[in-house]
TrEMBL record:
Keywords: ATP-binding, Nucleotide-binding. The keyword NADP does not apply. PANTHER family: ABC TRANSPORTER ATP-BINDING SUBUNIT, DRUG RESISTANCE ABC TRANSPORTER,ATP-BINDING PROTEIN. This is ABC transporter domain-containing protein. Residues 2-255 form the ABC transporter domain. It comes from the Bacteria. It comes from Agromyces marinus. PROSITE patterns: ABC_TRANSPORTER_1 (PS00211), ABC_TRANSPORTER_2 (PS50893). SUPFAM superfamilies: P-loop containing nucleoside triphosphate hydrolases (SSF52540). Pfam families: ABC_tran (PF00005), ABC_tran_Xtn (PF12848). Residues 50-76 are annotated as: Disordered.
Amino acid sequence: MLAVKDLEIRVGARLLMEGVEFRVTAGDKIGLVGRNGAGKTTLTKTLAGETQPTDGRIDRTGEIGYLPQDPRSGDPDMLARTRILDARGLGSIVVGMREASEQMGSADPAVAEKAMKRFGTLTDRFTALGGYAAEAEAASIASNLNLPDRILDQPLKTLSGGQRRRIELARILFSDADTMILDEPTNHLDADSVVWLREFLKGYRGGVIVISHDVELVGEVVNRVFYLDANRSAIDIYNMGWKHYLRQRAADEERRKKERANAEKKASVLQAQAAKFGAKASKAAAAHQMVARAEKLLAGLEEVRAVDRVAKLRFPTPAPCGRTR
């Protein structure tokens, strides 16, 4: 579905990631995590083909459904229902069938005959694409995302940002894409819709890459976790569910701390010995070798993840309000 090799992404002079390699196949439910600003959204845009990587290669097989944080695609004058159905090429057919049906009642025999032929052709195409069953499926998805008919029958340009986002999510879920890339899909969803979406994604047969702050969604859905480490400009891949990932991630961080502490201790000893030997001309070569060994020890270490800073806000105690009667 998706194959990434030696991927490098930069934003201006800032390196977000380099040397990234992974594959996404059918059944993979990947949670993409990392602190804010690490580059998660930029990565999803790149995987979807919205932007180009600085270096490396992305091979895409099959259809990709991409839900950005702020979707603006689609003809503004198109009905929301048509936008969803067009994910399988059905929306425009339905519009054409409706127009042909109206023209069949024309007083002009030539217009009516032409409309009948067009209606028959479109009906055959509609049926071949599983039209009626697909319409019911699309209606079910829309209903579960709290998109009633009054919204579906409006042009996209009349809808709010939250409604447009739910329309795009419904379109992607209906598209039956081989790989779905979803950036915060639970935004603008009510509690019932979030529960429904979790169950939908659990049963989805294609590949999924999801960014989400919904802990229950990633906890129940994902079977792989990609951690984007902004300090190391790398992605750590964990082929496990969310709970196991949390334990393994903590263990990895502790291991890195110990390895770095041991290496820094050894390097310090070597540097101290080199300083003593450097004072003697006969041991200058040995001192140089010790310095080189110390530098190699430190250069080979993985960076320990810096603890993310969290703002601490303190609000003054409000004055007591007056009595009310």
